[in-house]
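I'll show a sample.
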Amino acid sequence: MAEEQAPSRQWVLKAESEYRFELDPGASLAIKLIQGQAEIFGAELADGKTYLFYEECRPSTEYVAEETPMAAYANLHLAFEAMRVRAIQHSDAAVKPPTESDGENTEPPRVLILGPENSGKTTLSKILINYATRSGQGWWTN
């Protein structure tokens, strides 16, 4: 017996908004970027490529959110990026170790993400890792 395929929908998102969806256990969804720029967990989506979340069917919940924490996540990434750059610039063995009086922290960022279950800790981690990877600085090899 052939499984019925859910009808497709098209969403037009404004800048700095999000398409959010939740899937019931065993359910699935496919998305495709038609035009513009979008990302998932900080990884950029390619135009015309279908991204499959399990098998194609209807999500239990879906909506467009105008309020998003992504600006705060991007600012956090930029702060970490600046810390990584300072750490690399001062990592030469010939440079004396910084002291508190130097006024500049030259340690690379070390992050501990805390929060209750299902609060977005893993999502934030994926986003920050993908942003660092996309920066093109090769931080994942250091």
Summary: The first helix runs from residue 70 to 89. The chain has a mean pLDDT of 81. The chain is about 25% helix and 15% strand. The longest strand covers residues 18-22.
